[in-house]
Amino acid sequence: MFYRENGQYKTTYAADQQMLPILQDRVFMAGLLVVAFVAVPFFASDYLFLSLLIPFLILTLAAIGLNLLVGYCGQISIGHAAFMAVGAYAAYNIALRIPQLNFLVVLVLAGLIAAAVGMLFGVPSLRIKGLYLAVATLAAQFFTDWLFARVKWFTDYASSGSVSTAPIVMFGWTIDTPVKKYCFLLAVLIVFTLIAKNLVRGHIGRAWMAMRDMDVAAEVIGIRPVYAKLSAFAVSSFYVGVAGALWGFMHLGSWEPLAFNLTLSLNLLFMIIIGGMGSLLGSYFGAAFIVMLPILLNQLPTLLGVPISTAMISHLELMIFGALIVFFLIVEPHGLARLWAVGKEKLRLWPFPH
Amino acid sequence: MKKNLPTFILGIVLLTGLVAPLATGASAPGFYIEVLLGGLMAGVLYSLVALGFALIFKASGVFNFAQGAMVLFAALAVARLAERMPLWVAMLLATAIMIVLAWLVERLVLRPLVNQEGVALLMATLGVSYFLDGFGQTVWGSDIYKIELGIAKEPVMILDQLFQGGILVNKEDFVATIAAAALVASLMLFFQKTATGRALRAVADDHQAAQSIGIPLNRIWVIVWSVAGIVALVAGVIWGSKLGVQFSLSQVALKALPVVILGGFTSVAGAIVGGLIIGVGEKMAEVFLGPVMVKAFDLAGGGIENWFAYVLALLFLLVRPEGLFGEKHIDRV
Amino acid sequence: MRQAAKTRLLAAATGALVAAVAATASAPAFAQAKEQFFPVLSYRTGAYAPNGVPFANGYVDYLKLVNARDGGINGIKITFEECETGYATDRGVECYERLKGKGPTGATLFHPLSTGITFAVTDKSFTDKIPIITGGYGRADSVDGTVFGWNFPLGGTYWDAADMLVQHVGKKEGGVDRLKGKKIALVYHDSPYGKEPIALLQERAKMHGYELLLLPVTHPGVEQKATWLQIRQQRPDYVFLWGWGVMNSTSIKEAVATGYPREKMYGVWWSGAEPDVTPAGEGAKGYNALVFLASAGQGQVHKDVLKHLHDKGQGTGKKEEVGEVLYNRGLTFAMMSVEAVKRAQIKYGKKPLKGEEVRWGLENLAIDQAAIKKLGFEGFMTPISTSCVDHAGGRTASMHIWDGKKWNVQPGVIEADQQIIRPMIRASAEKYAAEKKIARRDCAKEQ
Predict the structure, then answer these.
(1) Between B309 and which of A18, A112, A193, B258 could a Cys-Cys bridge form, CB atoms 3.0 to 4.6 Å apart?
(2) Same domain, yes or no, for C103 and C246?
(3) Predicted model pTM
(4) What does the pLDDT read at residue C395?
């Protein structure tokens, strides 16, 4: 009843091509942004910021990056935490060696370095496909795990192999409290989402999707696989690298290579599959789901006052997490984003079901 | 012939690397053989896990990430059951458990996911592996448990008159290798000689064609997953008796992944040969190449075996995209 | 139709999840009560569970005992909540954030029980003002209380441990100078934990002229074949083992398989408990490890635990576990934490205390032989006395040897040589303070 698009005419090309063509969507988005920027900082607790919202924002960015590669270009990667690690260590070293550099510049440089490394590990995708490629990307994972643990220069010769960062100061503004971090990260995420949205609906995104749907056919109609695949790897690694730098600087503060291990890679993959492959919105849903679920499962028995031992809770957490993954894959293989689309469709017809 | 040139060059480089420690005198011959044997032994274990991967992939197109969790689950079952009954009864019972598990996985996970994309299936098996990790620890506990096969663990010195320092070997390793070889041989027989085996191969070649001539797909899947479960059991028992049975066992399976890409996803022979190559390659690299790298780059310790196998497999794939024994694939629009 | 049902099901599931999270976020504030809240970070699952479980049980048992036997700390009831970290840094940080504000006065103090988590929460401690106890682990330089205002490596650090091991093998050779030309291999867990002793061992290597062989083992540590082949090739005179969880027992098993004598293997205090040696069976016989405060065995306090908890079915773990090495360590750490609160109550009054107030107790902890006896820990602890400058309070340990069935403590106490360690601590703390822009505390003013 409220969600109707009739009567909204598109009279210019610009109107036809805008991101949110329906008025109600624009209102909703504006409302959401107001809530996110104004209401949340007022009401959320420190715990909510530090344990849910900040990881959620950063991992969403990483999930978008991975989604560009897997969901849009069809190249599976099980080793994307490696590029997060590259981003984090690159940012650490740049900030350490050129302290006067603005943090935003550091972020971009870290992203570029991650992109270069991503392209390097993307080269095999020109020869191998599908699951072979997926397993091959694990090479990136294990190699970077080793590299940052062993080459002392990367960790500034720290005896423990753990690096830590000082609070970030930008334009005379110190980002130290959870609220400030949240606002900064939200802004970064919005900018990167807009860029991604425009990439995927532009020329390059279409080339990626053609590659994904059928690479041989895409080649026949004149899309160069070298260009399409490597650009997807580069852009994806750039996003993930920036996310990695933020994960290190904003979330962890001090970290060791184990912080970017295979579990994180697999979680990123879970996010885009649960959220929806080839959907930016899905990256948000997926990240929210994967960040919240373990924490929630872990706390639920205590909240409900069910007396089970901590060990049992952790085992149950693993079991329910695994079972839910399978459940979601079976019930909605296209992810939560698809659910959202179905919901919107229903809303359009409501209250008349047909 | 020209096409095989890169393969040839890679082979030469690897072989040179293999004999280099001996030729340059960096290692005593006796020790060299010990490393070789150690690598082969590790390789046999990788092969066993890789075999489980290959079997399932061949028959159902599923890349089964849960193979490692299955190894752990089976080993835990044997270890805990053996505390209450003789070992052979425990193993039989564990086999039954693995078959029930296979049936459940087919019913609850695979059947509803038929015709999904490869990634979705892979993630589903990851879900299964999380579940098994939690379930296994709930049922069997999370301590370190022992499996006693009754074989001496103290090493024996052989050929010490031939080589300076002799060669240390373990009886346990030899028994394990023989058990693994017997398992592989009986699997081969099963595939080649029995009707079920032939049906399995038919399904692997073409699902739809197999179904059209009356091969029940679902039953075949249960059988394949059961066989993979039994392979996991054997791997779990051997590995568990060497290292102890504990949660971390499920992570050793990650070591088998480069083996499957090297050998080809669908090839049983590839799993075995690939396992041996990776096993020997990584131990050689760690022991001989590692210290050289540490000195050259001033690293904080070696540990290159963690990625060496992957990089080796990756290099290999660049030369032969379908793996060692994989089927050649021709793309058509 | 089926699709619609599915969609509804899924929507309901998602809705439930969101609602539950909202509920979690707005957890009710605790009523002001006469309670002292102890957060317990533990790992009862995963690769490190065999070692994490007995420690956590000992820790929790003591907290329960104080309530059951003494009615709390001078009448203030202890409450506690466990949170599973799985030995993972990110989960540990989440647990820290979750528990730091609970209870009427917030968390009393934290035992992160992982060097990685310690590194991560150290940064947070400066703003949260909650002490971080890292007895026998954590950052070695955090002994310096003027920089690391909130870290308490009670009883010693890894630099102390490494120093003691070198001294011990030096004595075996007939003087540390005899170590010249010898080879010592460090087999370590490849994490901040395992890397911490390297700096000290290198410093000592420079002094005595032994060769140090660094052999990292990747988490979780079940792949050690190549490591031990290298040991077989290099034939080091001694092997120092710096492992945790399943890595320890694997090391000993591989030592058996490659024929390295267990008598020449020395473990740090985290590599010297029952779960480390029993899986290797008879093969572990002769293996040495440092004892941190207490070895295995039972004393008066264990009798109390059995009487007040286990006999009433209130025990946390299995009854047989009471008196194991790691159980005892958990017990001892809980005792020191409770003693710190008691000490602080003298200054601030018998009421629930804030982390900041507990810190004063930790900095003025003095548990002498008489106090140890009174607490029922006779034979299970060495005296400890801390100050604002010295956050460790003690740096001695003994050695115990596994005879195939039980641990036998060797006579004699080893003390770490502060002549070597103190300058290293100073330099390292200085670097940290400069990096993080921390102003040193002036201890003279605060007392």
Answers:
(1) B258
(2) no
(3) 0.90
(4) 87
